[in-house]
């Protein structure tokens, strides 16, 4: 299709992206950049303590970053994968730069899981901050922009962080009942959290699950522990698209992700996009194809050339969306723009 001569890069990019998600043909490949707080910190030098605590600072910071990228992006509260884990008992820690993490809690029995109280997300430290950000973004968003729901950490990853990753992986073999109980508790809170998000937005266009740790599982355990949690989440939000961020080594789970109903997947940088599309029967829109580390210290022209070569390898499949296999935290703005320009220039129909 031909776009009007006065169309903007944002308009063309978002139209192609929407069509790619629906499995429709596009004139050029869409691009997906995953902006998170380390990116905004890198490109604006914002004080992270202020960014996390003051919705106005987060709002202005994100708009500044998105404006630098020809408005390719939307506002989105971002507290990493910490909200759910901290709400259920993990301890929030901040380093000297303001980057946050959550320490595991002491938990190892089903009885201790049963004792975990499910708090109102507004009554938790990070839940309150995130939902307040979301409200501020919604109330102040300029006409040209949109507000996305925050990512939701996958229940398996929440449970593994609460218990400790190594111990939890051992538990999947030695105490599966404990694992199921902790995953179910995590799922319940994830649903509660997203319901509060839905109240603010009115509708969640897409649930974006962040769930790298499931890559430790083979398909059998994935179907036992993870698939039921995904299905429970999806049942509560039947009109939301189902996106997944898993940029770990999850090739072996491709068919399981297709079967559980994932519609879009941001995959690892070293997976072959065309082969992954074939493995998922082209039923999942795939975000990736680029190694973010490769673009940190090269020129915009070199970035452009690499992207053109990668786009040729997509073989005209519009369900393959160009993007980094992960976040774009350390990629210079000029190189992110070069990625967008390459995709805009390289026509497939």
What does this entry look like structurally?
With 349 residues, this protein is an alpha/beta fold. The chain is built from 15 helices and 9 strands. A 7-stranded parallel β-sheet has the order 1-9-8-7-6-5-4. The protein has a two-stranded antiparallel ribbon with strand order 2-3. Helix 2 (37-44) packs across helix 4 and helix 9 packs across helix 10 (176-201). The chain starts with 8 loop residues before the first helix and ends with a helix.
Shape: globular
Number of helices, counting only DSSP H or I runs of 4 residues or more: 15
Quote the distance from N terminus to C terminus.
8 Å
Strand portion: 5-15%
What topology does this entry show?
Blueprint: H1 9-22, E1 31-32, H2 37-44, H3 48-53, H4 55-68, H5 83-87, E2 91-94, E3 100-103, H6 110-115, H7 125-140, E4 152-153, H8 155-163, H9 165-174, H10 176-201, E5 206-210, H11 219-236, E6 241-245, H12 254-260, E7 264-266, H13 273-279, E8 285-290, H14 300-313, E9 320-324, H15 333-345
Parallel strand pairs: 1-9, 4-5, 5-6, 6-7, 7-8, 8-9
Antiparallel strand pairs: 2-3
Helix pairs in contact: 2-4, 4-7, 7-10, 8-9, 8-10, 9-10, 10-11, 14-15
């Amino acid at each position: 299709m031909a776009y009007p001569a006065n169309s903007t890069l944002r308009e063309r990019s978002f139209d192609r992206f929407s069509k790619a998600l629906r499995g429709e043909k596009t004139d050029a490949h869409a691009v997906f950049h995953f902006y998170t707080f380390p990116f905004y910190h890198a490109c604006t030098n914002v004080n992270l303590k202020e960014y996390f605590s003051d919705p106005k600072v987060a709002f202005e910071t994100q708009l500044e970053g998105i404006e630098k990228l020809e408005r390719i992006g939307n506002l989105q509260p971002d507290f990493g994968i910490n909200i759910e884990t901290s709400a259920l008992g993990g301890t929030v820690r901040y380093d000297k730069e303001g980057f946050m993490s959550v320490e595991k809690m002491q938990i190892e029995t089903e009885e201790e899981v049963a004792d975990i109280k499910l708090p109102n997300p507004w009554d938790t430290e990070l839940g309150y901050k995130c939902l307040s950000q979301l409200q501020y973004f919604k109330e102040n968003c300029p006409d040209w922009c949109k507000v996305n729901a925050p990512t939701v950490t996958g229940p398996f990853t929440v449970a593994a962080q609460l218990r400790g990753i190594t111990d939890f992986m051992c538990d999947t073999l030695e105490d599966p009942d404990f694992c199921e109980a902790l995953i179910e508790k995590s799922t319940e809170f994830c649903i509660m959290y997203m319901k509060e998000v839905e109240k603010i937005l009115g509708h969640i266009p897409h649930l974006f699950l962040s769930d790298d740790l499931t890559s430790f599982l083979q398909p059998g355990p994935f179907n036992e522990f993870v698939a039921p949690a995904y299905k429970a989440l999806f049942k509560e939000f039947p009109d939301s698209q189902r996106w997944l961020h898993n940029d770990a080594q999850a090739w072996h789970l491709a068919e399981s992700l297709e079967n559980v109903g994932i519609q879009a997947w941001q995959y690892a940088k070293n997976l072959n996009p065309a082969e992954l599309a074939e493995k998922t029967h082209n039923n999942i829109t795939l975000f990736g194809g680029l190694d973010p580390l490769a673009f940190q210290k090269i020129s915009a022209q070199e970035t452009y050339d690499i992207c053109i070569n990668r786009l040729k390898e997509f073989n005209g499949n519009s369900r393959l969306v160009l993007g980094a296999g992960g976040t774009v935290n350390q990629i210079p703005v000029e190189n992110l723009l070069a990625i967008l320009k390459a995709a805009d220039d390289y026509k497939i129909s």
